[in-house]
Amino acid sequence: MEKCIAAIATPLGTGAVAIVRLSGKDSLKIAQSIFISKNMQDVQPRHMYFGRLCLEENVFEQCLMVYFKAPFSYTGQDVVEFQIHGGVLLAQKVLERVLQAGAVLAEPGEFSKRAFLNGKITLDKAEAIIGEINAESEGELVSSLQVTNGALAQRILSVQESLKTILAELEVGMDYPDETEETKLKTNVFSRLKKLSGELEEILENSKSAKYLSDGINVALVGRTNVGKSSIMNALLGKERAIVTDIQGTTRDQIVESFSFDGVKFNLTDTAGIRDTEDFVESLGIEKSKQSAKAADVVLFVLDGSEPMSEDDKQIEKLLQQSAKNVVYVINKTDKKRLLPKKDNEIEVSALQNKNISALKEKIKKLVIEKEIDFNKLVITNQRQFGILQEAENVMQEVLKEQMPSLDIVAMQIKKIWQILGKITGNTENEDIIDLIFSKFCLGK
Fold first, then answer.
1. What do you get for the CA distance between the two ends of the chain, in Å?
2. Number of domains composing the chain
3. CA–CA dist 192, 179 (Å, integer)
4. Do residues 179 and 195 both lie within one domain?
5. Does residue 443 form part of some domain?
6. How far is 99 from 264, CA to CA, in rounded Å?
7. The domain containing residue 201 runs over which residues?
8. What angle do CA 79, 84, 87 make, to 5 degrees?
9. Alpha helices in 331-406 (DSSP H)
10. 197 contacts 354 by C-beta, under 8 angstroms
11. Cα separation of 183 and 189, whole Å?
């Protein structure tokens, strides 16, 4: 029999309320042994009870208790929650008391794992809950909420059900070959597989750029010293983050900050100004600058528009042409007279006057995200799920490309697609992967 588990379900820290949660067959029994209130021998589910929780002899905490009777709870088991006064020490003391009364400390994600094993949530919903908790951009949150509300599971289970129906018809065709017109059956099957392939392609196409919602667009600011890289970073962030001075070589190490724009996270890296130097520490920073340029999704090559290109500028330009993919020429200091020749793929800005900063953000986004992500459709930011869909679609295309394969080969491939898709909902996933996913949850979830 599974033991009753317990954990603190709220973040540790000082606050108005903290919650200690129990789940398992003995949850109510344990609660009744340490909580004193009226009618505790006839506790009604989903009713809030005010009373005293006995921490030790003659020491009590006044709090609230609520009971959720199986299967109508988050985990599908009997669940009890104590809502106590917020505070690290108090929450730990209540948890210790619950454990003394017979519960065991829950592992990270164990409440949600029990919910999955009891059929309360699918595996994709569990991963989406992690996405909701960890979301750092509006787009990532919207995507996670879509999946949590069942949009992905509904689509996948529907495709799996269609595959089962097709498979059953193929089995009949193989069992009774004399009564089945094979060519007609194959034509019908292939037509339906094309339709299912279209459904998978639609999700994949709308989710191609979605990885940037969770990972963010990596942007490196590159240029020689004193062209205004740090000022532009501060303007993009909307706050003073990088030190701005007239002294060359101020930025010696990378400064990394993130912000959200139009639902997408941007990861900015302000790099050391690239120039010839004998300063050992500065030279280390310059080498990191070159590495950041190679790794970035977009490089902002910052130039001082009030000056002609220097030899350092030309060397940096040559370096970027060899290593960087998306390079935007950011012509700074447009509040002064421009002396720099026009450049391809440039944008004029003034960090001092905050001019064209929003346009720069939009330009970065459009360089990486080829088309607007339609949040009215299903969008997947989870790369594991995206990879599984891609794998299923690849097998689907292999079947469709074959020139009239035998029925048993088609049936075998359809079974394979069904099993691959089940890795998303969890109905075909192995225990090790399930354990790994739930281990990413925080304690008490």
1. 21
2. 3
3. 21
4. yes
5. no
6. 43
7. 124-209+378-426
8. 125
9. 357-368, 383-401
10. no
11. 10
Among residues 99, 120, 141, which one ends one of the domains? Answer: 120
Q: Show Cβ contacts of residue 378 under 8 Å, excluding neighbours closer than 6 positions.
A: 146, 151, 152, 155, 203, 206, 207
Residue 194: per-residue pLDDT: 93
Query: Which range among 161-165, 334-338, 420-424, 429-433 shows the weakest confidence by mean pLDDT?
Result: 429-433
Is pTM beyond 0.90 here? no
Longest alpha-carbon distance in the chain: 88
CA distance 258 to 427: 37
220 CB-near residues (< 8 Å, 6+ apart)? 269, 271, 289, 292, 293, 295, 296, 298, 299, 300
Residue for token digits 């519960």?
103
Q: Are 350 and 332 in contact (CB under 8 A)?
A: yes
CA distance 93 to 85: 12
CATH number at residue 39: 3.30.1360.120
pLDDT range class, residue 281, cuts 50, 70, 90? very low
- Structure tokens, 364: 């970065």
For 183, the enclosing helix (H) or strand (E) is: helix 182-207
Strand-strand pairing, 79-85 and 17-23: antiparallel
Residue 152 within any structural domain of the chain: yes
Whether residues 218 and 364 fall in one domain = yes
- Per-residue pLDDT at 162: 92
- Given a contact cutoff of 8 angstroms between Cβ atoms, the answer to whether 84 and 18 are in contact is yes
Distance separating alpha carbons of residues 381 and 214, to the nearest angstrom: 6
Neighbour-count burial of 308, counting CB atoms closer than 10 A to its CB (0-12 exposed, 13-18 middle, 19+ buried): exposed
* pLDDT confidence bin for 311, thresholds 50/70/90: confident
61-78 tens-digit pLDDT:
999 999 999 999 999 999
Confidence grade of residue 82 (pLDDT, cut at 50, 70, 90): very high
364 & 264 share domain = yes
> How, if at all, do strands 255-261 and 264-270 pair?
antiparallel
444 within domain boundaries: no
Mean pLDDT of the chain: 83
pLDDT, tens only, 180-222 = 577 788 888 889 999 999 999 988 887 877 777 777 889 988 8
